[in-house]
From TrEMBL:
It comes from the Eukaryota. Residues 51-153 form the AB hydrolase-1 domain. This is ALPHA/BETA-HYDROLASES SUPERFAMILY PROTEIN. Transmembrane segments: none annotated. It comes from Salix purpurea (Purple osier willow).
Length: 200
């Protein structure tokens, strides 16, 4: 007899998919060529009276998890686009590049594939680095930029002076990409004001 288990992530994904659809967005994948596929939530109906808003997520499962609880704030005032960055969610590439500059180029190609040539953007954490790179590379296309929790100007001396809660970039990478259960717990402590307890 096969037993069924409750999956927190699967149920949360279902909830977010439902809420994104209810907010007037639909999931769509675009083939950018060169082995690059990007998944994005796009407006079901584009209103020319509304400005375009690109929401770039940070490290996490996919874009839904970053913006799911705040989406309704944006959709009433903007045509909202919420892509999964490469190697998150359903976006991937067979190309070897792994920089935020390459991510920015792919996101811009994605937006152009959807007919969007002018936009505002919000980038959180890693998405802030990608957004900063987009603003630098495509100045004529980016109107306003909001970067949240993204140390785009952080230098080694800032870490030495205690501005960042880890001693160096290698330690930061080991926290952001946890390889052990203890490192995952450490990431949770850094990520939440009130981290959940009792997670196996």
């Amino acid at each position: 007899m096969m037993s069924k288990f409750f999956s927190f992530t699967a149920s949360r994904d279902w909830f977010y998919r439902y809420s994104f659809a209810k907010a007037g967005l639909r999931a769509q994948s675009a083939n950018l060529g060169d082995g690059t596929i990007m998944h994005c939530w796009v407006p079901k109906i584009i209103k020319s009276s509304k400005p375009n808003l690109l929401l770039l997520h940070g490290f996490g499962a996919n874009a839904m998890w970053q913006y799911g609880q705040h989406l309704h704030i944006f959709t009433s005032r903007f045509n909202v686009y919420v892509p999964d960055l490469l190697f998150f969610g359903e976006s991937y590439t067979s190309r070897p590049e792994r920089t935020e500059s390459f991510q920015a180029q792919c996101v811009m190609r994605l937006m152009e594939a959807h007919g969007v040539h002018r936009m505002n953007l919000v980038g959180i954490s890693y998405g802030g680095f990608v957004g900063y790179s987009m603003a630098s590379q495509f100045q004529e296309s980016i109107e306003k930029v909001v970067l949240c929790c993204a140390g785009v100007c952080l230098e080694e001396k800032d870490m030495e002076n205690g501005l960042f809660a880890v001693p160096n970039l290698d330690e930061a990478a080991s926290i952001l990409l946890p390889q052990t259960a203890e490192k995952l717990r450490e990431l949770m402590r850094f990520s939440f004001v009130k981290p959940a307890t009792g997670i196996p």
